[in-house]
């Protein structure tokens, strides 16, 4: 075929595809986020006479989105590393136990109806995706963590006339197989949910229903996650190697939120959730969370208000009979229980539950500069005992968090903070953090530079 025929064929193909391409949109965005941290007791009390830790971590992301008639496709690849963990001339090989290059998101969303003609939105979203609902207390992308969180799932989405209903499902497997569906739930790195839970669910299903009101929003969530059943060999006295079998233990979480504003100045948030079913070891569950907070706007710059979170705990009950420690699922605990991450994160804090009494203030010094100061008083619902039988105080400690956020441009933000924890003997006791020779004062500081450029390259 000569050049003229090639040119003619290319022209015909372009004419056929051009109308479709012209109605599509391609967006390219990215992120470089560095965070330098000075740790002296972050996550748990610092051991006396221990040196502080200082390091810089970096998240690097490249995102590409495609939108056309009744179709959206989005892909996000990221690399997470600590400065210096690679040799300067050799890139280390990423293993399953450490961070590195990974596919954060890759999903497609198909509109099942012509948008707006019948309902506002009725679509199917399938693939690796973030699940973020309401205030991200139970389902969130955990964006503070450099690796963040995502799920391999399918979500059917409905939106119309102020109503939102999402139905999601997921089914996990370790690899392609010729037979059986056993799944060991081993995560690729670290904890997969709050409370340091180190087993990924075998399957999950959820229903989220939200409603917009004149004063704010209300929502209902039903979430079920299933964990593979297992047992231990009689010779495995220390129970180190689980043997997985058919069937699952199912955990159920249901409850709702109410967010709103009264008289334009008083914002409020109410949450209540209950968990039942079985934990990943088969233990029966009877757990709850209740939360209430208000925020008063005193003019354009100041806002402040108190709040309380209460989560159930075992309180001396034998966990082998019934487990009562609430688990905030796959949320963003950094946002709620203090920025030093003492509670409901990887370090854990026992099984006695938590009462968090807090007071938050926010000051908008300029349009691009915001300061916040939060104070938390952490208390156990029931007293615990030391190894010598001595009953300890219910008070765990007091945390102060001071944060600033400065927006240089739409794409560039600076953020930093300083936190201090004044902990008690109870905090470091064996039933809570279990730290010997712990200091009663810990602090933590960070500076973060967030660069997120975005550009439409075809429209």
List the defining traits of the structure above.
single chain; 459 residues; mainly beta; Porin; 18-stranded antiparallel beta barrel; 1 helix; globular; Alginate_export_dom; Alginate export domain-containing protein
Give your account of this protein's structure:
- The protein has 459 residues and is mainly beta.
- It has one domain (23-86, 100-175, 187-458): Porin, CATH 2.40.160.100.
- Helix content is 4%, strand content 51%.
- It is built from one helix and 19 strands.
- It has one helix at 3-22, and strands spanning 25-40, 53-68, 71-82, 101-111, 121-129, 151-160, 163-171, 203-212, 216-231, 243-262, 266-278, 284-298, 302-311, 354-366, 369-379, 395-407, 412-423, 441-451, 454-458.
- The chain has an 18-stranded antiparallel barrel.
- The longest helix has 20 residues, at 3-22.
- It is globular, with a radius of gyration of 25 Å.
- The two termini are 34 Å apart.
- The mean pLDDT is 89.
């Amino acid at each position: 075929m000569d050049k003229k025929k090639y040119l003619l064929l290319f022209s015909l193909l372009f004419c056929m595809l051009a109308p479709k391409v012209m109605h599509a949109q391609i967006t390219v965005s990215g992120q470089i986020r560095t965070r330098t941290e000075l740790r002296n007791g972050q996550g748990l009390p610092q051991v006396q006479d221990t040196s502080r830790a200082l390091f810089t971590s970096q998240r690097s992301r490249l995102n590409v989105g495609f939108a056309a008639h009744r179709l959206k496709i989005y892909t996000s690849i990221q690399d997470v590393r600590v400065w210096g963990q690679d040799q300067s001339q050799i890139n280390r090989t990423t293993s399953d136990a450490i961070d590195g290059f990974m596919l954060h998101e890759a999903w497609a969303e198909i509109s099942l109806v012509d948008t707006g003609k019948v309902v506002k939105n009725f679509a199917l979203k399938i693939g690796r995706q973030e699940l973020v609902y309401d205030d991200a207390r139970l389902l969130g992308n955990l964006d503070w963590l450099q690796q963040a969180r995502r799920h391999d799932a399918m979500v059917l989405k409905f939106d119309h006339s102020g109503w939102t209903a999402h139905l999601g499902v997921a089914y996990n497997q370790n690899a392609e197989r010729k037979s059986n569906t056993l799944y060991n739930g081993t995560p690729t790195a670290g904890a997969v949910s709050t409370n340091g839970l180190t087993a990924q669910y075998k399957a999950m299903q959820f229903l989220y229903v939200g409603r917009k009101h004149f004063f704010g929003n209300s929502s209902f969530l039903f979430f079920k996650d299933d964990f593979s059943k297992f047992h231990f060999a009689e010779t495995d006295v220390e129970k180190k190697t689980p043997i997985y079998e058919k069937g699952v233990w199912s955990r159920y979480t249901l409850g709702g939120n109410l967010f709103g504003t009264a008289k334009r100045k008083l914002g409020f948030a109410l949450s209540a959730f209950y968990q039942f079913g079985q934990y990943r070891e088969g233990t029966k569950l009877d757990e709850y969370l209740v939360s209430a907070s208000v925020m008063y706007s005193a003019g354009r710059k100041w806002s402040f208000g108190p709040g309380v979170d209460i989560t159930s705990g075992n309180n001396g009950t034998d966990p082998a009979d019934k487990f009562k420690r609430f688990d905030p699922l796959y949320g963003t605990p950094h946002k709620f229980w203090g920025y030093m991450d003492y509670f409901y994160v990887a370090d854990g804090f026992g099984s006695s539950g938590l009462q968090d009494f807090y007071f938050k203030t926010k000051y908008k010094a300029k349009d691009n500069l915001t300061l916040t100061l939060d104070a938390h008083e952490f208390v156990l619902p029931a007293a615990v005992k030391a190894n010598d039988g001595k009953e300890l105080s219910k008070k765990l400690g007091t945390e102060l968090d001071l944060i600033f956020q400065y927006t240089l441009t739409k794409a560039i933000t600076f953020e930093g903070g300083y936190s201090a924890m004044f902990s008690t003997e109870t905090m470091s006791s064996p039933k809570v953090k279990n730290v010997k020779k712990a200091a009663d004062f810990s602090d933590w500081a960070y500076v973060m530079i967030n660069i997120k450029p975005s550009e439409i390259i075809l429209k």
